[in-house]
From TrEMBL:
NCBIfam families: ftsY (TIGR00064). It is a peripheral membrane protein. Residues 290-303 form the SRP54-type proteins GTP-binding domain. Pfam families: SRP54 (PF00448), SRP54_N (PF02881). It catalyses: GTP + H2O = GDP + phosphate + H(+). GO terms for molecular function: GTP binding; GTPase activity; signal recognition particle binding. The gene is ftsY. Part of the signal recognition particle protein translocation system, which is composed of SRP and FtsY. This is Signal recognition particle receptor FtsY. SUPFAM superfamilies: Domain of the SRP/SRP receptor G-proteins, P-loop containing nucleoside triphosphate hydrolases. GO terms for cellular component: cytoplasm; plasma membrane. Its EC number is 3.6.5.4. Belongs to the GTP-binding SRP family. FtsY subfamily. Keywords: Cell membrane, Cytoplasm, GTP-binding, Hydrolase, Membrane, Nucleotide-binding, Receptor.
Amino acid sequence: MSLFKNIFSSKKKETLDKGLEKSNTSFFEKLGKAVAGKSKVDDDVLDNLEEVLVSSDVGVDTTLKIINRIEARVAKDKYLGTDELNTILREEIAGLLSETNLGEGTEIRVPEGIKPYVIMVVGVNGAGKTTTIGKLAHQFKKQGYKVVLGAADTFRAAAIDQLQVWADRVDVPIIKQNMGSDPASVAFDTLSSAVSQDADIVIIDTAGRLHNKVNLMNELTKVKRVMQKVVEGTPHDVMLVLDGSTGQNAFEQAKQFTKATEVTSLAVTKLDGTAKGGVVIGISDQFQIPVKYIGVGEGVEDLQVFNKYEFVDSFFSLKN
């Protein structure tokens, strides 16, 4: 099918397939039970499929959209066999996600005339924020960009130390202060240093506390305001990192953070260790914010650019 373009190298596609293996296996085990003894897609099969999709963390709203599309397909084609169901799912879910018009998975590129390009990273502690920043810095450096990191999560000493480890690992400069310092001050120093170094990209880590949305919103607003004193129009991207292994909790985190601040892109991590990969489909559909990256492994190269067609192909391909 033309929707499923091979934009990844074969190695990256293999990594994606492996990273989604638990989600894929779990889904087809449930689907097998749902269609047992059935030869055609009928109301009973659709009811069972609905349960399978919801239990695979696709989300209720997105599941209903998918079921409606398949019902329309059944009405149009008159007869669909259950052996065709995985192919139909791939096609209809890809079609649904294509309607979001959020792109097909392109790496972040520095726009002409914007230097440095500033990414502010938000997300709850433990979502994989620091690891994502480190892997992004590695990928940007490989593309030839000069990168500077800012350790503005000053509420945890571990956050500063972890970012330092990644900065050393990928060999990029980091700007930091002591634990308890003003995050906005760290952001200011980071941008000032980046400008003086003629850096291309700045990635700012921020504290991930959701217990008080008002404080979080005020803090992030202050960080933005202070950064704009150094580089007008910053941040250019506010990236929310979500832990895919938490399933429906990732939806809730996305809701909370999008209420607290303007989020412009998403990264969904830890998909390789879970059977909850369906959450990416729901998040892509429900939030009008592009998922730009997915984490499908521990390796530094395993933060992949998200392409909805490749993702759906890997998730719903029946393995021999």
